[in-house]
Design goal:
Length: 198
Amino acid sequence: MSVEGALARVIRSAADRAATAGAESCELCAARVADEHPHLYDTGAAEVRCVCGPCSVLFADGAAGEGRYRLVPRRRLRLPPVDTGVLGVPVGLVFFVPRSDGAVTAQGPSPAGAMRWEVDADAWRRLAAEVPQVASMAPDVEALLVNTVRGLTEHWIVPVDDCFRMTALVRREWQGLSGGGQVWAAVEQFFRDLTERS
């Protein structure tokens, strides 16, 4: 049996145990996790998985998982305004994720979840050349998060789990065709609550 197959089996069985217990648990060993806990990004399933501190150490610096599971970093960095218009994305609330294979995806939250499309890789490289912080992003696990809705100019480098939290927030708060006032107030609060960390 391959290491990847055994690890996937352990993750599935731990997830099953956690679901039946009702408490949030590590998806590797089933230990309870704190409210603030590390995450792994499963590149195969494109999902974030909860892990406890000791299990997260296994994936530091890509040490385990044969590249399929990547530890999501904690870094949050507020940027000055970035001209993302060069990326050809027509929405004001979006996050960009560079991938290990060189592709870049843009994802915009919606009432149905995240809408996803590919960004021109050359345009991304030009942007990264102009903004060194963008060039330093870890593929698959960090995102350039942008909010220019309602005149805001929020530009952040964040872990992808922050982007998934924002997507869930939009989905939960959206009302009617335009989202309603409640969703935009919640999005603005989400950005106010972001704090820089390394």
